[in-house]
Amino acid sequence: MATHPTLQVGDLVGVNEARGPQLAVVQSLKGSRAELRIGFDGRSLQLPLRDLFLLAAHPPAAAAVARQLADPPWQLTPERLAAGQPKRRLLGEAWLLLVEDPQLASAELADLVDLVGDQSDPAQVAACWLWIQGDQTLFRYRQAKITARTQAELRQLRHDRHRKLLEQRRRNQWHQLLVGRQCLDPTNLTAWQQQELLLLRRLASGEADQPLPPDLLRALRDAHCAAEAGAIRHLLVDLGQWERHHLPALESTIWEQGFPQELLEEAERLLLLADQCLAGDASRQDLAGQHVVTIDDQDTREIDDGLALETFADGRQRLWIHIADPGRLVAADSPLDLEARRRASSLYLARGSLSMFPPSLAHGPMSLRSGQRCAAWSIWVELDASGAVQADGIERSWIQPTYRLTYADADELIELAPPQEADLLAIHALLERRRAWRAGQGALMMDDPEGRIRSRGELAEVEVVEPSASRRMVAEAMVLAGALVAERGERQGLALPYRSQPACDLPPAAELEQLPSGPVRHAAIKRCLSRGQVGTTPAPHFSLGLGAYAQATSPIRRYGDLLVQRQLEALREGKPALTEQAVAQLIQELESPLRQGIQIAREDQRHWLQVWVEQQQQRQWPGQFLRWLRQENQLGLVWIEEICQSLPCQCPGRSAPGDGLLVRVAAVDSLSDLLRLDAVA
């Protein structure tokens, strides 16, 4: 753009602004700036003189200064400018002349107008200036000088323009697919289209690590899709590129990737070894003659534990707690062991479980399968009349579980008490005695029913687990085994992943008695409890009423329990056990995958709860107010009896623990991870 030294009020000028090249009329001059009326709408604008290009001087004979482009003397309209547009043939001739004549290597606008039109016509001058500023390829226009591009440059420009046109056409077609929200086949997409699809998946997964391209953002707007995770999930579902119940937290994790082929092959190799005699097998105690029963949920495939009773001639009763021994097949620091350590635990989701070990092993020879000869760690214990431990021991053994019961089966047998199941009834009585002993030590017995959402295809259903006799029995046996292992570790100075919980001050008994028993009272207690801790030295566990405790009964599905077995094995065999520092390092290594697994499981339950609510969002549910989460926002925690879960709800401002409420759906969208509940008195 060039400054004209003789610029006057009323002149027709050209201006480059954000909207592109514009025409304007000078209204006044103030030092180095000019007041303009710009464009056909006559907007007022002040610009420096250096930014203006004189197209036509105001005629001295003109009576007044034009206020608009359409006013005399310019009388410019879009139609006149279109008519004054230089003809294509004349432009071609002008280009040829400038290319062939060295004296015209650098021309001015006036020279070009002379070649293609009439310089005395302001409409033609203005139209030519707008054209030269536009998307044309024949000339360069820099610092008010015009040069013709060479033939080679024109060929390259035309090639580039054609390529960009095709690319834009493909992009428009791709974005029309997004707008149409129809299923598409990603194998038919180009590399950059697949890249944009990947960007959308990342955003849907909550990985907003880079912004979306402007064209893609425009396509999302055209598809009425906000550039946020939930809306994009809806779009990807319509496109067939997102499974409706896919969990973002599972995206690109070890769980989603499954087991590498080489580890599956290693699992098959170990399957062939399972029935052979392996190191340490000869020294195992043969307990295959015991009447061992395993009790689990119907769909449990990893069977970690079983129970048996041994009665002596003098009437003494010895309880045996048998624990699976996966370490027989999987050596420490082997590829399968390292993979299990990376997972840290099995993962239980609404659609099924994801095992810490390959399922062929975890569901096969590692498990305590009925009728099969199984390797085990066997903990025995004798209790006194109060439920305190009188004698105990730990053996590596062979067992052969007699049969497998579901919790419902076991509850029925405990209730009916058939004579042929005297051992089961005696086991139940022993563990009830032990439970009473722990209660006497200050253990908190908060046995509420627990609701869990299960997937049945595309539908969700609630499964309520009641704290039945058999579940209390099995849970107490597992706590007892953990206490015995921890006490042994403490006596022997063995580093283990001990679990502890600091003591805390509970609400006064009189205050708790004022609250309804069950979830309301338990909520008041739980909010006072300290967070549990894991460390290498034993410490009391407040809620369990124990001086020391270590989880030890699920080595197929918890790596920490397998670590406990390996430390016990080293102690038993007289070999060096892992040092406290090494165990601490393993605990730290397991922390991240355990936290990730908890996050995935919580997201899974939250998602399927939202699916369940979507299925019946017109319903209302009775509930009990538990406590405030954020009273200033009227957000409280409400126990919903039908699903046996505590959920956040908008509650009446004067709600108090135990108040009855009616819960209804305010908003729900499982793809957007949205659930808002309102509760009214």
Characterize the structure shown:
The structure is a single chain. The chain is of the alpha+beta class. It is built from 19 helices and 25 strands. The strands form eight sheets. It has a five-stranded antiparallel beta sheet. Strands 8-15-14-11-10 form a five-stranded mixed beta sheet, covered by helices on one side. The radius of gyration is 40 Å and the shape is elongated. The mean pLDDT is 93.
Q: Nutshell version of this structure?
A:
This protein has 681 residues and is α+β, with helices and mostly antiparallel strands.
- The counted number of beta strands is 25
Structural class: alpha+beta
Residue-averaged pLDDT, rounded?
Answer: 93
Distance between the first and last residues' Cα = 73 Å
Strand order of the largest sheet: 4-3-2-1-5
Biggest pleated sheet:
5 strands, antiparallel
User: Tally the helices: what do you get?
Assistant: 19
- Detail the poorly predicted runs: none
Approximately what portion of the residues adopt beta-strand conformation? 15-25%
> How would you sum up the global shape?
elongated
Search tags:
681 residues; alpha+beta; five-stranded antiparallel sheet; five-stranded mixed sheet; elongated
Topology, pairings included?
Layout (H helix, E strand, L loop, with lengths): L11 E6 L2 E11 L2 E6 L4 E6 L3 E5 L21 H6 L4 H13 L8 H8 L5 H12 L5 E4 L2 E4 L2 H30 L10 H14 L9 H9 L6 H10 L15 H4 L3 H13 L11 E2 L6 E4 L8 E7 L5 E8 L10 H9 L3 E3 L2 E3 L4 H4 L11 E10 L5 E11 L3 E4 H10 L5 H19 L9 E7 L2 E7 L3 H24 L5 E3 L8 H5 L5 H8 L6 E3 L23 H15 L6 H36 L4 E11 L4 E6 L4 E6 L9 E10 L4 E7 L1
Parallel strand pairs: 8-15, 9-16
Antiparallel strand pairs: 1-2, 1-5, 2-3, 3-4, 6-7, 10-11, 11-14, 12-13, 14-15, 17-18, 19-20, 21-22, 21-24, 22-23, 24-25
Helix pairs in contact: 3-4, 5-7, 6-8, 14-15
